[in-house]
Structure formats: C-alpha cells, structure tokens
Amino acid sequence: MAQDTTGLKLNFEYWLDKAIEWGQATTLESQKDVCLHLPQLQEFLHQLYGTVKHLGSTEAIQQFPLIGQLLGRLCWNPFVIGYDESQKTLMWCLCCLYSSEPQNAVELKANSWVRSLLCHLLSSSKWESNQAETSAFISALGYTSADYYSHLVKNMVISLVTELRENQFNGLHVQESISASRVNAVSIFCVPLITLPDLTPLLETLLLYHGSSSKEILSSEFLEAVNEAFLKKKISLPESAVFSLWLRHLPSLEKATLSLLDQLFSIQLNSVEEVAHVIKDSLLPKAASHPAIFRTVNEIFKNALMETDGTPEVMTIIQVFTQLFLQARQNENKQHKFPLKAYFPYHHQPLVRGLVRRPFELPATYWSQHLKHISDILKALVGDTNVSSLNDLFEIWFLVACFGEWLDIAAEQLLKAAVEPDAMLWLLAFYYCPKNENQQRTQTMVKAQAVYSHLMMLLSCADLSLKDLEVAVHRVTGTEQCCNQYLTTHLLTSFLLFSPSGYKVAEECIYHISEVTDTSKEVYNLLIRTAFRFNHSGEENQRTLKLLNELLQKLRLKI
C-alpha cells in the first residue's frame, strides 16, 4: 500500500504540473495536449479517489498537501470535466475533502471552497458567462448548451444514485462503504439545485439513505431546503421520501404542520370537504401512520387549540385530521400497522379503543349502546382519584375532543332514537364543561336535562313556531356560562335538523340565536361537520343536507 501511495504521489506532481501548464485550455496547443492526456488523467483521478475515500479530510490533505490546487484547476478546465466520468470523479474527490464537523476556521474556509466548486460543476451560467471557449467545446460535441448541461446533470445524478444505493445494500463491506462526511457533502452541494427536476432521484435517494451512524448524516441545510421547496410545491417527491424527511428532521415536520394550520386559517372554511382536501394534500394524515409523526402533529394541534382558546375552527380542523388519519391507518397493510398504544401511549386504552371505532364500522342501531360504553368509561376515569391534576383532565378531554364525530352523533341520537339520555347528556356536558369546580359540570348537566326534556315534549308537534322554542332559546341567550350556552346550542341545533317539523323554523331560529349570542361560529362548524357526514350518506338524509347547505350559506355571510 505504501508503495502504491508513493507512486500516486509521483503521478500527483506530474498532473499538477500539467494542470498548471494547461490553465483553462484557452490556446489551441493546450487544448490538443489536454485531449491527448484525458484517458490517463481520468485513470489517475480514479486512483486518487480510491485512496482518499478511505481517509478523513484532514488525513487526505496531510498526504496530498496540494490536492486542493490540483482539483481546483481541473474543475475549471472544460475539456477535463466534459470527458467521460471525470466530472463525477472530481466531485467525489471534492466530497472527500469536506469536513462534516469543522473544528477551526481553516476547515470552515475549506468547506466553503468545496461547496463553491461543487456548485460550479453543475452551474451552466458560470461556465457560459465566464468561458467563451465552453460554447465552442459544446458545439464541437454536437450539443446545444441546454442539451449538454441537461445530459451532464442526468448522468451525474444517475452515477450518484447508483453509488449510494449500492452502498446502502452493501453496508457490511467496510472498505466499500461511503463515509458519512461524503454523504453529508453531497447533500450540501444539492442545496442550491433543489428545484432542478433532474435532481429529484438524488433527493429521494438521499432522504431514504441511512448510514451506520446513529447521528444524522444529511446536512440540516439540505433537509430544510427540501422541506421548504416541497411545502411551496416547487418540487414533487414520492411519499416515502417525504415521510422519511419528517421522521429524520423534527423542525421540518413542525414547519409542515404549522404551514398547514396557516393555510387553513387563511381560507374561509366553506365546507369540511375543502378542509379535508387541504389536509389530505399536505400528506400529514398519511405520514401520521407512523406514531412518532402522529404524536408530534397532535402535540402541535393541542398547543394551537390552547393558544386560540379552543376556537371552533381549530377544533374542526383537529377532528377532520383525526378522521383522515384513522382512514389512512385503516388502509394500511395489517402487517405494517402499529398498535394503538403507540399513538396514545399515556391514555386509558379501553377509552382509546372505543373512540377509535368509526361510526360506519357499527350498525346505526348499535351507536347509542357504543356511546353509553364510552360515557361510562369516561365517567369512571374522571371520577378516579388518580386524575387529580388539571393537566390529566385536559389530556382526557383533548382525546375525546379529537373524536368529536361521536359527540355530534350523541346529540343526534338523543332526538332520533330511543336511548338512555343521561349517558349521552353527561358525555356532552363533559365535552363542554370538563372541569367540575363549584359543581359547574353538574349544573350544566341539570340545565341540559331541562332543555332536553322540553325539546322532547315538542318532538311530536306537527307545526312548530319560534315561540314554541322560546324556553330552549332563552337557555341559550339568557345564560352567562359559555359551556351552558354551547351545549344548549348543540342540542337545539340537532333538534331543528332532525325533528320531523324542526326544519320549518330552523333557519329563523338558528339565525336568531347567532344574532343575539356569540355562538355563530360554533353553530357554523357544527353544521359543516354534519354536512360532511351526510354528503356520504343515503337518500334519507337529502332533505337535511339541503337544509344544512341553506343554513351554511346564510351564516357564512354573518361570520
């Protein structure tokens, strides 16, 4: 090996002299001489790369002190970089000189120099603006400039992808493995070229590449740039690559989630279908099939809910996201499914299992029984002496709130089926009033029972008027506690939608409530959630769906 290195050093001096002699090959004599030596030069570069790829950047410079001068000169010679695989080999040699963890100012400066050369190798603008000879050289090859650079980039990407993939499958062969610092360098040189369409296969390969080190080998600048370009729809990536990006780089996942929330806040929520389309398009529900991603996104949603003081819009977004997540998880291959506990590790598992069941998975006649089961579990949990802190109570409430579809069905079941009302009313009372300080939830429950009893008396009325609903309306307009107001509004809205004659005064009554209270957003979000479910139901709900759309149109103007 020592003898080989000695020979390589002698050749090194020869080729450095040649590189200095050639310059940028601006004369006819120098161009002829370069062309005569290209095959031997490429063989030397292969040998040089074969040696330095097993050395660290510091050791490589110690053995070949003038390696930077040689590579730098060759990179600016259009005849050299245009020949066969010379450009690829020069790039790999440069990557070997890159320090993934620079220790001093010299190494930082060297890294900057390497990055500039790597960018130059794939930058047509620099060549064409600074080197008139390049155009003549490309023309002599029979290419236009655009074709030449396009082929150059494609070939380079293919070579890099092939080498990375072979290394991934061949990781046990230490002598053949690519060092983490070189993979890191490749990711850095991609940063200014992220949006180049031909680079997509390399981006995908890098994002799916995992070395033997437990530390992240791709540069944070690269991961941030890819995420930014993806979020702005400047690049298209396979789902597997996007999910890998979010799994390996938490800031990118956080930014993607916050970007989704910003996007949803900036548009008027005309329908849940629109909300669902935007959320689906973000790929986050599908990515959340991995528990680590789900827990992170859920935590961000939870913080957004607290920061906005539980606004109905945020609650609707969270509930729609949860439904889309369950749908994506259901479509997954059973062999690759994670257990529910991986998504909700700190929650009471029987409650999780009850909430995760989708309504369409059960016969409608079983819904009330299932809701009673959820209510009983929840009541036992809340009454448990272990749930002593407000934080514990909030975590239980947030879990229930995420599956708000069941809460809407509970309000409907109270008016559409023969049910045990106390279990349903307690479930709704807990949602709207989770804390029971000063018997607050108990009082809410009592008032809810009074409203419910009055509505049930009106259920058989053939010809309802707004005056008939005065007691219930007064419960909404006359109460000072938001939890009482919202719960009564929920019950009254469900009555107007689902009672035989409620639809006749629904528009007048709901608009009256929204005029004299601040519940218009609550009602609006309840209506769009109900419309979303009914859009996928049968003919029997078409009248209600028509009424929902009319009410939404009226309320949309108000909010």
From TrEMBL:
<dbReference type="GO" id="GO:0006289">
    <property type="term" value="P:nucleotide-excision repair"/>
</dbReference>
<dbReference type="Pfam" id="PF02106">
    <property type="entry name" value="Fanconi_C"/>
</dbReference>
<dbReference type="GO" id="GO:0043240">
    <property type="term" value="C:Fanconi anaemia nuclear complex"/>
</dbReference>
<protein>
    <submittedName>
        <fullName>FANCC protein</fullName>
    </submittedName>
</protein>
<dbReference type="GO" id="GO:0036297">
    <property type="term" value="P:interstrand cross-link repair"/>
</dbReference>
<dbReference type="GO" id="GO:0034599">
    <property type="term" value="P:cellular response to oxidative stress"/>
</dbReference>
<dbReference type="InterPro" id="IPR000686">
    <property type="entry name" value="FANCC"/>
</dbReference>
